[in-house]
Every structure is written in structure tokens, then in C-alpha cells.
């Protein structure tokens, strides 16, 4: 076995919101805060958020989304996959793991660390409050105003993605899936409220594995 890694930066093209699940709502405060590191109180991007988005988009891109009744794709659905899509489907299972109790694909190959603010951005403003509301279709007036906290455009985060390569794995194919997934996230969005323009990002160094 060997472990390969891909490191770079995530640059925010538009504001990013990944919720923090606040326990306390302060009067006059932010209605929906971003997740923050408890040690530094600075926002970060959970590795799980990137991994989940990566997997979802790659399942659609590989034509296997929907075979498992809305659940992540696994080996229990391989018998439904056309033969010309089989190799990519199997590599997806190897990369992200399999829920089957007795899987022939082994353990999950990919791990994605939490992404913290790049050192060059630590002194910048890391949070902004964006007001949103609902427009009454008859009166044209704004209703239910609320504040959404975002990490502003221009902030960068460091990412670190690693893949375990086992004997018999197609290393090039697994790397290619990750690179393709990052490209798909760039074309889509990361975090919440993507349909409203949030979460447009750019990954640097998408192919320079080491």
C-alpha cells in the first residue's frame, strides 16, 4: 500500500456559507452562523462537506446516482449498472467505500482533512452578514428579513486530500476521479444556498499529486 496526497488552496469566488449549528440565538444577532474552529474562532471548511459534495457529483457524473433509492451508491447496485459504466462504478466504490457488510472492495481509499484559513488571509475580514428576505408576490414588499453569515469572497483555505492505493487498484483512475470531482465542484458550488450564488470556489493544484 502507498498513500498519495493532493494539496492546494480553495479560493472563494463568492461568499461561502457552511452552517455551524448554533445552540444560542441572540436577539439582533446573526440568524444562521458559519461553522468555526473552537480554538481560533475562525471559519473552516469541514472535510466531510467536500467529501460529500465530491461523492454526490461524481455519482451523477458516472451515471450511477439514483440506483440506491437516494442513498450513496454501493456494491449492492452493481448488477443494475450497464457494462460500459462498470469500471468507473467500481472505482467509485473503492474511492468512497461500501456499506455492504462483506464487501470485496476493501476500505475507503479517500480522506479529506478539514480546510483552515490560509496564513495569507488570517488578518483579513473572515465574516460578513448578508441580509435576505422573501418578497410578497402581491404587495412587492420584503418579508421575514434574516441575516446569513458568510465567509466573504477572496478568502482562501488550505486543502489536503489523500488516497490509499492498494495492490490491484488503478492509481491513475482514482486520482482522475478526485480531480474530476474538484472540477465539478468548481462548476457547481460548495456549502449552502448555491442557487442564490453562494459557494462558487476554485481549487488550485488539482493534478499535482505527490
From TrEMBL:
A Pfam family this chain is assigned to: RAMPs
Domain CRISPR type III-associated protein: 10-202
Tagged with keyword Nuclease: yes
Repressor in keyword set: no
InterPro entries cross-referenced by the UniProt entry: CRISPR-assoc_RAMP_Csm3, CRISPR_Csm3_endoribonuclease, RAMP_III_fam
Protein origin, superkingdom: Bacteria
Keywords: Antiviral defense, Endonuclease, Hydrolase, Nuclease, RNA-binding
Family: Belongs to the CRISPR-associated Csm3 family.
UniProt protein name: CRISPR system Cms endoribonuclease Csm3
Gene source species: Campylobacter vicugnae
Amino acid at each position: 500500500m502507498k498513500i498519495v496526497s493532493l494539496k492546494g488552496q480553495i479560493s472563494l469566488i463568492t461568499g461561502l456559507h457552511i452552517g455551524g449549528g448554533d445552540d444560542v440565538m441572540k436577539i439582533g444577532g446573526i440568524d444562521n452562523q458559519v461553522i468555526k474552529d473552537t480554538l481560533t474562532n475562525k471559519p473552516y471548511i469541514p472535510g466531510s462537506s467536500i467529501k460529500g459534495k465530491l461523492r454526490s457529483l461524481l455519482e451523477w457524473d458516472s451515471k450511477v446516482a439514483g440506483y440506491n433509492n437516494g442513498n450513496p451508491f454501493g456494491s449492492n447496485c452493481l448488477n443494475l449498472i450497464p457494462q460500459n459504466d462498470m469500471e468507473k462504478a467500481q472505482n467509485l466504490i473503492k474511492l468512497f467505500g461500501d456499506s455492504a457488510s462483506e464487501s470485496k472492495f476493501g476500505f475507503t481509499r479517500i480522506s479529506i482533512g478539514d480546510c483552515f484559513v490560509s496564513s495569507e488571509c488570517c488578518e483579513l475580514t473572515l465574516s460578513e452578514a448578508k441580509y435576505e428576505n422573501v418578497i410578497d408576490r402581491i404587495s412587492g414588499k420584503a418579508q421575514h428579513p434574516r441575516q446569513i453569515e458568510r465567509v466573504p469572497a477572496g478568502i482562501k483555505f488550505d486543502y489536503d486530500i489523500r488516497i490509499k492505493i492498494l495492490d490491484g487498484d488503478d492509481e491513475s483512475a482514482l486520482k482522475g476521479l478526485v480531480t474530476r470531482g474538484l472540477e465539478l465542484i468548481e462548476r457547481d458550488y460548495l456549502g449552502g444556498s448555491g442557487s442564490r450564488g453562494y459557494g462558487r470556489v476554485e481549487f488550485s493544484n488539482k493534478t499535482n499529486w505527490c
